[in-house]
Specification:
Blueprint: E1 7-18, E2 21-33, E3 38-42, H1 49-56, E4 64-69, H2 74-79, E5 83-87, H3 98-109, H4 117-126, H5 142-154, E6 160-164, H6 172-189, E7 192-196, H7 200-206, E8 209-214, E9 219-225, H8 240-253
Bound molecules: adenosine-5'-triphosphate.
Keywords: ATP-binding, Nucleotide-binding, Transport
Organism: Cohaesibacter marisflavi
InterPro entries: AAA+_ATPase (IPR003593), ABC_transporter-like_ATP-bd (IPR003439), ABC_transporter-like_CS (IPR017871), ABC_transporter_ATP-bind (IPR050166), P-loop_NTPase (IPR027417)
């Protein structure tokens, strides 16, 4: 495993001034996500999760410290298609078909669509949307829209995948089904993945380790390793070790 090809966050700080007060959104945050790893980031509202994601996507710059994505600056990584991202609300373009939404990052990067014909067909199959290539987002269920968003995030074959609360809007049953699906997709894609979530169970089910953050200032307070082999199955949600980890993370979130 080599952090050079994963995500390296080195002593990153970022503050904002809003309405006369200084908010330390991130204070001295360091985190290495080795190549091929799956890390879940969990923390209370305002602990800096979105800020960290924005820095890793090159949409914002730290006041001090450094973020490296596959050994490159976040901007360079995004421009070269090494970064894929899927957000909570799927953010699909309503007038574009599923296929055209999946192709969107290629249009943005100025790449030829024709070179990706096979890749898109493979991705549609991977996320279980065969037959819906020509459907519009409004014709899909919430879970299907999220799957389309994940396919879109994977279309450039990114080395690094960022998932920001991808299933936050779904009900518990569907979310667990999607967790199983995401595990399968992730195992095939090999992408180094950082998942931002509010779901303790989702974090444990999917990740190699769970990073717990605290706010004021935004910082990492605990890193908890998840010991389960893969593929993980839904019966894991009832496993005693799973419950013990849930408790440990809940306590870490409460500041214990
Ligand atoms: N552009 C900005 N201007 C002013 N303050 C900001 C800005 N961006 C973030 N903040 C502040 O920085 C802190 C961290 O915000 P951030 O959105 O990163 O938290 P979060 O953990 O993603 O929260 P949530 O779980 O609610 O999305 C908050 O106090 C927020 O108000």
């Amino acid at each position: 495993m080599n952090a050079e090809h994963g995500i390296t966050i080195n002593q990153v700080s970022r503050s904002f001034t809003g309405r006369g007060t200084l908010v330390q959104a991130l204070s001295d945050v360091s985190l290495d996500c080795p190549e091929g790893s799956f890390t879940a980031l969990i923390g209370p509202s305002g602990c800096g999760k979105s800020t960290l994601l924005r820095l890793a996507l090159g949409l914002d710059a730290p006041d001090s410290g450094q973020v490296l994505i596959s050994g490159m600056t976040p901007q360079a990584a995004a421009k070269s298609g090494k970064t894929g991202v899927a957000f909570q609300d799927a953010a699909l373009m309503p007038w574009r078909t599923v296929e055209d939404n999946i192709l969107l990052p290629l249009d943005v990067l100025g790449r030829k669509r024709s070179a990706y014909h096979d890749e898109v067909a493979k991705l549609v199959k991977l996320v279980g949307l065969d037959g819906f290539e020509k459907a519009l987002p409004g014709e899909l269920s919430g879970g299907m829209r999220q799957r389309a968003a994940i396919a879109r995030a994977l279309v450039t074959r990114p080395e690094i995948l960022f998932l920001d609360e991808p299933f936050g809007a779904l009900d518990q049953i569907l979310r667990r089904q999607m967790n199983v699906e995401l595990q399968r997709i992730w195992m095939e894609s090999n992408a180094t993945t950082l998942l931002v979530t509010h779901g303790i169970d989702e974090a444990i089910f999917l990740a190699d380790r769970v990073v717990v953050m605290q706010s004021k200032p935004g910082r990492i307070s605990r890193i908890i390793d998840v010991p389960f082999d893969r593929p993980r199955t839904p019966d894991l949600f009832a496993h005693p070790t799973f419950h013990a980890l849930e408790k440990e993370i809940a306590e870490a979130l409460d500041g214990h």
